[in-house]
Specification:
Length: 233
């Protein structure tokens, strides 16, 4: 009987240990860390490319609705990115693709306040590496809207917060017409034709290793993401 009691007591102590440890300090999930998003200003980092920057200003001015926003240049971004006052929409490239990033500014390191530390929120591939072409920039409104949808869901769901942009995909295509042609789909998207889903294919840079490409299915009128996959070439 005594041995049975000691075994039970040891098991109970083991189960209560995590609760005791949690009481010594809060554990902040990614949703907690980005919960302040609506109260912070989002800085949209301009690229120095006149055509792209003009389009960025036009699209963010007409579409961004989930936080205050301002435009800044790369020098200001570098100056402010280690502080916790702002979120940033910015662009970066690897050998194959250029991505649009949303990130929370802040310091980095092991002993940083979790609510103030730098956090990568989400990214979307938007073009081959380098400056996007006019054909690729056609879909900028959809990328902006997808980031907004992701953030709104990630603030209340850690499942979404710890996932990629694929977390906002919807399965039900009922009532939609699927266009399989990239060129026709681009025309439908530009016309904001109601009721269509079109393919968005992001090819890698010709100068890169060309290992993968990204394929999406996006609605023309409300920019809902129906499919997102990275496929081997």
């Amino acid at each position: 009987m005594k041995a049975h009691f000691l075994k039970y007591f040891a098991l109970l102590a083991f189960l209560l240990l995590p609760l005791s440890a949690m009481g010594q300090g809060k554990v902040y999930t990614k949703s907690n860390r980005i919960a302040d998003f609506p109260t912070k200003t989002t800085k949209v980092v301009l690229t120095g490319q006149p055509i792209l920057d003009a389009l960025l200003k036009a699209e963010f001015t007409s579409r961004w609705r989930i936080s205050p926003y301002e435009f800044c240049d790369d020098a200001e971004f570098e100056q402010l990115r280690n502080g916790s006052l702002y979120y940033f929409v910015h662009f970066a490239s690897d050998d194959e693709f250029t991505y649009m990033f949303l990130s929370k500014g802040g310091p980095v390191g092991r002993n940083v306040d979790p609510l103030k530390k730098a956090t990568d929120v989400v990214s979307i591939p938007i073009s081959a590496a380098g400056t996007p072409s006019s054909d690729e920039l056609v879909y900028l409104p959809a990328f902006i809207d997808m980031i907004q949808e992701y953030v709104l869901k990630a603030m209340v769901s850690d499942r979404v917060a710890y996932s990629s942009i694929k977390a906002i995909m919807r399965r039900n295509k009922r009532g939609k017409i699927l266009c399989e042609s990239e060129s026709r789909g681009r025309e439908l998207f530009l016309d904001e034709a109601p009721g269509y889903i079109v393919p968005v294919v992001i090819e890698p840079s010709p100068e890169g290793p060309r290992k993968h490409r990204y394929e999406m299915l996006v609605s023309t009128d409300n920019h809902i993401l129906y499919s997102f996959k990275k496929s081997r070439l």
